């Protein structure tokens, strides 16, 4: 019987089991793989969409044209008074997770790939384009459709 199985047999489960297991193991790198990544307050949604509340401090910068945030490896930018754009942070050139929003377009600093706000490549490094996501603003909630 493993240590984990033994602790489960004592009736421990969830966070309690994880805490006891990690403390007993003395593992400095103990990771609870069952836990979801922590998202900032103001983040909601489901498997098909991400909902960002732009009235919260985590996302209020999206109320200003030219700003962007990165949530769950998606770069979400305010591209005009009325429009947003969202693309994956993973560059299509060599897969580096470095894409961000700069000067009205998406950019990867690794080798200089450039993409327009719809994900279309703007130079040879960005020629494959990049996955983009539809967005919709309702009130102060910005939906990103995954
Ligand atoms: S990995 Fe992004 S430009 Fe090469």
TrEMBL record:
Transmembrane segments: none annotated. Keywords: 2Fe-2S, Iron, Iron-sulfur, Metal-binding. The keyword Metal-binding applies. Pfam families: Rieske. It comes from Algoriphagus formosus. This is Rieske (2Fe-2S) protein. One of its GO terms (molecular function) is metal ion binding. The lineage of its organism: Bacteria, Pseudomonadati, Bacteroidota, Cytophagia, Cytophagales. Signal peptide: none annotated. InterPro entries: Rieske_2Fe-2S, Rieske_2Fe-2S_sf. Residues 73-144 form the Rieske domain.
